[in-house]
Amino acid sequence: MIVAIPVDEDQKSLCPSFGRAPWMMFSDTETGAQKILENPAAQAQGGAGLKAAQFVADQDAAALITVRCGENAAKVLKAAGIAIYQSGAPEAAENLAALRDGRLSEMTRFHPGFVGGQP
User: What are 47-106's pLDDT values in tens digits?
Assistant: First the structure.
């Protein structure tokens, strides 16, 4: 299973913003392979969450671990069959371990979105 995680500039810490995260980590839980790609939505004028969600779907992710997620992005992710998990730790590796061990919960609350990239 490929798991997507929005990460900050250090490419290890979770970014609190899904849509505007500078990088997306994609980790294959079966092979252990990881790739970190620049998030093309990070500098979007608007709709960053939607664009980031489509980017995650385009990478064949089956799950997303994030701090928070907007309603519109969640709709895109769910339509693509991507499970959304609430992060439980500040580092990507810790969250991957928590997911593997069944310690992460699926996200059930989504914010209405941000205007102009401002939380």
Answer: 999 999 999 999 999 999 999 999 999 999 999 999 999 999 999 999 999 999 999 999
CA 22 – CA 47 distance, rounded (Å): 15
pTM of the model: 0.93
What pLDDT band is residue 115 in, cutting at 50, 70 and 90? low
45: buried, middle or exposed (CB in 10 Å: 19+, 13-18, 0-12)? exposed
Tell me which of 3.40.50.800, 2.40.50.100, 3.40.50.300, 3.30.420.130 is the CATH number of domain 2-100. 3.30.420.130
Asked if 67 contacts 41 with a C-beta cutoff of 8 angstroms, the reply is: no
> What own/partner pairs with CB < 8 Å and gap ≥ 24 does 78-83 have?
80/53, 80/56, 82/4, 82/53, 82/56, 82/57
CA distance linking residue 85 with residue 98, whole number of Å: 11
At 42, phi and psi to the nearest 5?
-55, -35
